[in-house]
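ok here's the first one, seq then struct tokens
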Amino acid sequence: MWFWLLKIKENILTKNERGLIYWLITGGFALVMTLEYLTPPEYVFGYLYTGTILLANSRLSRKGVFGVTLAAAGLTLLNLFVPGVEMIHAPTVANRFIAVIALLVTGYLSHRNRRNEEAIAYTQAQLRSQEQLAQMREDFVSTLTHDLKTPLLGAIQTLKSFQKGQFGGVTPMQEHVIETMTRSHRTTLQLVETLLDVYRIDAEGLKLQRSPVNLVTVAQEAIATLTEVARARQVYICVNYGESDFRRSLWVNGDYLQLGRVFSNLLMNGINHTPRGGNVEVVLEGSSHHEIVRILDSGCGMTQEELPHLFERFYQGHSDRHAKGSGLGLYLSRQIIEAHGGIIWAENRASRGAMFGFRLPACPPPS
């Protein structure tokens, strides 16, 4: 649309503007013809017609440029016979033909350059239009997700009131239904909050509330939160401290809440990809400079095509899962880890399954 508006703006010339262009071209022709026909044919001034060709190309149509180019070439050759008072030598003829070729090339290249400029302008207009459309979509989704929080919170609060018997007694069957509805609403609310966080981080960046954080504590809290989900799917979660057989501390300078989200996202990803009866292992290892966390599942692993895209927004992959995700958990985890100055990666295990890991700079334990 922007391209056509630009085209209309370029093509709608007033009579005065169009008349000025023609007068300038006519004046250019008159000047060059005067120099050509008042000097001997050995002096070739036809090259100066390039100015009129370029001027025509800037404003006139393709047909107009073609006409100006042919006229310039014809007038350059005509000087061989007009005024015709001197003997014409072969070098003079050659010079004239070289000038004509130069004029024709100028006309062709100027027209081609104009087409390239129009193509570039069209592409730029398309990109601007796509960027505006993408921004509109982003704003719409952000506003929609924000507005969805209020009715979801209201629905969850109403279900809690039913559970407490504020609207009368609740039978065991009704209690089960209310619990299912509450769980579904909380899942939806979590997705809405994740969407809001993604758009907020993209727009404003991630603001961290840093303090000394023990990754072991964060991991244990995340595991406790997801234990019921794992049990329902018959997946066992275990913790491994690497070379140490006892519980240890892995201290980093980070945001406790955001790092907890990373653990929850990676654990949930492992649970979703692990078949019933399988296990998800959390490996916590540390060194003097870095603390490393690995989460291993016993699923079917990932294809080579999936690996480069795992941490992209809305990417869901093609593997079999217990539950289809939103494609935001890994993307958000990458943003959080990178904001902490760490790195996150994924790879297939030597045996069956996949491994998702991240590494963060270590810090001394608080005194």
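and now the second one, same deal
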Amino acid sequence: MLNYLCLLFAPFGLMGQESAEVIQLINPSFEDMPRHSKAPRAWSDCGFKGESAPDIQPSGIFSVTKPASNGNTYLGLVVRDNDTWESVGQELSRPLEKGKCYSFSVALCRSELYVSISRLSDQTANYTTPAKLRIYGGNSYCERKELLAESPLIANTRWQDYNFKLEPSKNYTFLILEAYFKTPTLVPYNGNLLVDNFSDIKISVCNESAVQDNVAQSEKKPEMVVVKAETIKVVDNKDSNTVKPKDAAPGQTEASEPKDIIENASINNLKRTDLKKGQTLRIDKIFFEMDKSIFTRESYQFLNDLVDFLRENPDISMEVGGHSNGLCTEEYCLKISTDRAKAVVDYLVGKNISRLRLAYKGYGKKFPLSSNETVDGRRKNQRVELKIISFNNN
């Protein structure tokens, strides 16, 4: 009651100040002529070169006919099986400021039909697998400087309002919205996300917690996860330059590749005299099932070669290091990389290699080799490394 009275009798000057803090988007309901491959008025296409732009729906094209949540049209975004996805961006009427918190809502759902052509098979496909919405802050068109928030997978086929809360670590003048795959994953797929009725962005209280509801069942407006991690360096979809590692791996510098790291190491070609203590063998022949620590069939040839190598060189002790891609939380990345490193050690021990000669450690996503924005980059980051600990226990 007290808060209500304070608002009721607030001085006009204060109310005007609060109004000035509101960030208003241009065309927040994505109104425009229904058509495909065209970003709505006032929004910029931030997708991949060579790929089509988002769609203004419902146009009937791609079999999308769902009525809008607000107004006449809405934004249609897809994710594709060739590891590309659609996004749009807009310059803000005033910056998002470091140290302040913001809240807004947006209507989201999924279309039961979104019929197009698969980029991989070149056959007709229905892009209906649920995707999520990610929200980035930046300081130029389509720049993804910091991941501010993301939704859960949007499986609901009726419009629902989702509440977002942002807490930027720096000032940002642009906002980017993109559809994205289920994470953590290395397997792109065809899916869609519909976006409508973006509200004004308002200053909010920072100490309120954000709770992610079961949006498919709840009647409430669910709040989104707030991303409070340090700024994420992301490659612009229109530029294929790779991201430099935030931190150097053991023995690695930003300036040059250390000489004591052997890339794409082949056990069969290794000579005992070429090895030294502290040397790292970077492996690209051990693979796991998605989100598991179970080896795929093609991994066993290398694992068995490694067994033979360790039997032939009983004086060598080594650490198995697991590394993940960046499409997961710190906690999950650390766990999956540790589990996979342990799986390698367990396999070797099961082949009668002494556990006293083996150690394992998960490094999570701490030491990326390339950008996580491409399949090839994520494959490079998700790897196993063997580090020579000692010879003859020295």
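notes on #2: Helices lie at 2-8, 12-20, 300-312, 330-350, 375-381. The two ends are 73 Å apart (CA to CA).
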